[in-house]
Amino acid sequence: MLTADDVRESALALAEHALELPELAHAHTVAAYVSVGTEPGTLALLDALRARGARVLLPALLPDNDLDWGAYAGEGSLARVQHGGRMALFEPVGARLGPDAVTGADVVLLPGLAVDARGMRLGRGGGSYDRVLARLERAGARPALVVLLYDPEVVEHVPAEPHDRPVHAVVTPSGVRRFAGRP
User: What share of the chain is helix, strand, coil (3-state, %, to 5)?
Assistant: First the structure.
C-alpha cells in the first residue's frame, strides 16, 4: 500500500521524467487529467506545463461518460465533482470548451490501470478515453499519446479490443518507455 509520502515522491519523479519528453517540451496544448486516489500524482506536472506556457486542458465527465474539456488555471481552478456512485473527480471550473477541444492538443496524457509491451493501455472500463481516442482519429489529429503509471503497472500483456489504440509512451516514476513503431 502506498503512503501519502510515496504518492507525493512518485508524483515529483513522474513530473520530472515527463517534462523531459520532447513532445511535452514543444507542446502548446496538453490534454491531461487530475489524478485521484492513489493514481500517480499529476498536479506537479500540470503546474510545470503551465509554467512553461502550455495550455492545459482537463476533462469534465459528462452523463454519458464522454468528456468535455476546460482550461486548467492552477489548483484553485478545480472543483471536486461527485459522479453518482462512482468516484469523485477534480474538474476545471469555468467555461466548457466542448468534447472536440481535445483534437487541438499536441499531447494527450492518459490515465490507466496498466500498459503492456505493445503499448496497449488498460483503462478503467468507462470508455471515456476510448471515445477521446476515436474522436482524435476521426478528426485526423495525431497528438502524442502518453500514459502515466507506476512501474508495476507496466506489464507483459493486457486484454485489447479491436477499437483499442496503442499509446506512444508510458511515463513512470523511474523513467520513460517508448513503444515499438511509435514516434
Answer: 30, 25, 45
The residue among 55, 161, 175, 40 whose CA lies nearest residue 111 is 40
What is the distance between the alpha carbons of residues 38 and 47, in angstroms, rounded to a whole number? 19
- Which residues fall within 8 angstroms of residue 4, CB to CB, at 6 or more apart? none
Instruction: Give the up-direction half-sphere exposure of residue 127: CA atoms within 13 A in the CB hemisphere.
Output: 8
Q: What is the DSSP letter of 154?
A: B
CB 115 within 8 A of CB 80: no
Q: How far is CA 70 from CA 33, 37, 58, 114, in A?
A: 11, 21, 5, 26
DSSP state of 16: H
H or E, element range at 59: strand 55-61
pLDDT digits (tens, 9 = 90+) for 33-53: 999 888 889 999 999 999 999
> Does the predicted TM-score (pTM) go above 0.90?
yes
CB 35 within 8 Å of CB 42: yes
